[in-house]
Design brief:
By secondary structure, the chain is α+β, with helices and mostly antiparallel strands. It has a domain of about 110 residues: 3-Layer(aba) Sandwich (Aminopeptidase). The chain has 5 helices and 7 strands. Strands 1-2-3-4-5-7-6 form a 7-stranded mixed sheet, sandwiched between helices. A hairpin with a 2-residue loop joins strand 2 and strand 3. The chain is globular and about 35 Å long. Bound molecules: coenzyme A (COA). The site of coenzyme A (COA) has 20 residues, from helix 2, strand 4, helix 4 and helix 5.
């Protein structure tokens, strides 16, 4: 496998990533509500707030193979969002690498509390997040979205101020 490079995402990466999402349902599961189907690939970077939110890619030969963002939820809490791995590269540990890198980015931004949201029937994502140590932070909402948190991040024994209401 070619070397993996971690870098900030660019608009052209989102055009690649748009081709990984094959339905309105898949789009909602990845990016939450608020995006319209079909995806307008050239507008996706802007629609995802790529200029405002910390947005990162793992790349091979400068092509995106995985993408994720951080939502800043206050002084100390950051929220992992829009996590996705290229369909051709799933099941080989890139999702785990992507999340570890995002957690390092959150740590470097002084986060002590980490959260995320996931559809409770998204088995692949749930397996990934559980493996990383995330635990449920409540019950699934009416749409089936489960809030999760990462205990013991950045030296904290627990984090209980959950309550994310968005997706991703
Ligand atoms: C969820 C996703 C990012 C996982 O990426 P990935 O690169 O395939 O995951 P990894 O290979 O790093 O696997 C991490 C763990 O999850 C498990 N896992 C991955 N895919 C799985 C699947 N389809 N079913 C069950 N477990 C799975 C792996 O077995 C691994 O656990 P292990 O270390 O105990 O073996 C990927 O499936 C994806 O991009 N899905 C579409 C977008 C999406 O749903 N994003 C989540 C938004 S909340």
């Amino acid at each position: 496998m070619a070397e993996l490079i971690w870098r900030h995402a660019r608009p052209c990466d989102l055009e690649t990533i748009a081709s990984w999402v094959d339905s309105a349902r898949a789009l909602e599961r990845w990016a939450g509500p608020g995006l319209t189907w079909p995806i307008k690939a050239s507008a996706l970077f802007e629609q995802l707030g790529g200029n405002e939110l910390p947005s990162f890619c793992l790349t091979q030969d400068d092509l995106a193979v995985a993408f994720g963002q951080l939502f800043v939820k206050g002084d100390k809490r950051q929220h992992l969002a829009r996590i996705i791995v290229s369909p051709a590269h799933r099941g080989i540990g890139l999702g785990r690498q992507l999340c570890h890198r995002l957690l390092e980015e959150a740590r470097s931004r002084h986060a002590t509390h980490i959260t995320l949201n996931v559809f409770a029937d998204n088995q692949a994502a749930l397996a990934l997040y559980r493996r990383l140590g995330f635990v449920p932070a409540g019950k699934p909402d009416a749409r089936g979205v489960l809030p999760m948190r990462l205990p013991a991040f950045a030296g904290t024994a627990d984090n209980t101020d959950n309550g994310p209401t968005d997706n991703g």
